[in-house]
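Supplementary notes (optional reading)

For those who missed the lab, this is the record we used. Protein: D-glycerate dehydrogenase. Length: 325 residues.
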Amino acid sequence: MKKKVLLYKAIPKQEYERLKARFDISFFDTVNDSNRSDFFTALKEAEGLIGSSLPMGPNVLDKALKLKAASTISVGTDQFDLAYLAERRIPLMHTPDVLNETTADTLFTLLMCTARRAVELSNMVREGRWTKSIGEQRYGTDVHGKTLGIIGMGRIGYALAKRGHFGFNMTIQYTNRSRNINAERDLNATYLSMEALLESSDFICVMTPLTPKTEHLIGEKEFSMMKKSAIFINGSRGKVINEKALINALSKRVIRAAGLDVYEVEPLPANSPLCTLDNAVLFPHIGSATTETRLKMVSCAVDNLIQALAGDVSKNCANGHLLKH
Ligand SMILES: NC(=O)c1ccc[n+]([C@@H]2O[C@H](COP(=O)([O-])OP(=O)(O)OC[C@H]3O[C@@H](n4cnc5c(N)ncnc54)[C@H](O)[C@@H]3O)[C@@H](O)[C@H]2O)c1
Ligand SMILES: O=C(O)[C@H](O)CO
């Protein structure tokens, strides 16, 4: 008999067929009031889970009594409680590496758009407000040759730093849980304390995962330490930043501008004060959102689930270090 798998995201047909060839699939594109009880019935029977963007904390997974493996179509694992899963001996598989370059492309786009006020000025053209030279007060600021400070120099942080170093002759500095020797060797990156990085960077990009230790890592105190001309970029998770403090820093011009791909609440409510700020560039969580990369992520997550349900968690297991204890 085929193992039961709960799929909670629409995926390309060829990847769906790969799953269907091996497993008995229950598919939920979304979970709402009309299908919630069917979702929980399927969850109760599922040995495998695959999907993304749904909170899967203990309150949900306590009902998944037969669960043997979960596979998230993302590198971020913050929808899950890794320790809880490890306690139940359930591996959580994720999709590192396949999205590094695309996400770094997005972050650099965000950085460039923010520095050069691209969205604001493009809107001026579209709305018929380009009636004369834009004027000094709307000039952007240079990116090339500036200092890029990266908080969280992991896989994506490194890919972003590569763009800054080789493409834009930027000075790279970073803070991280541990030294990134490759970044220091390849990109001449300098390891700094958080304080030193905040005080001396022209561009500051946050690329840590969201964990209990990184929640609200950047708040009022940190914004006040940045240069008045600093441009802040968040491509990690919204909750790594105290969004209220960021809004305050932007509206009072404590810093120059921010480029954001992620928010405390997603989708960002249209009445968020962020939407009224002309010094904020707002992307709708599109770090990895290209056709090619999203397909690679789904394919990787499908492979991960097949392998994990066969007992092999040697690759891409996010809580492997906890399962060992
Ligand atoms: N915006 C998007 O669409 C998008 C796309 C991909 C990933 N992400 C987010 O980016 C995160 C990072 O992805 P990655 O693949 O580079 O992960 P990674 O694990 O390779 O890198 C994260 C780095 O953060 C560091 N770190 C962790 N806690 C820290 C702390 N308290 N202080 C300083 N550094 C700390 C780690 O040491 C590591 O080097 C993901 O967890 C995800 O949340 C967002
Ligand atoms: O974590 C990730 O992979 C990205 O945020 C896309 O969901």
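If you only remember one thing from this example: The pocket of (2R)-2,3-dihydroxypropanoic acid (ligand 2) is lined by residues 52, 74-76, 99, 287-288 (CB under 6 Å).
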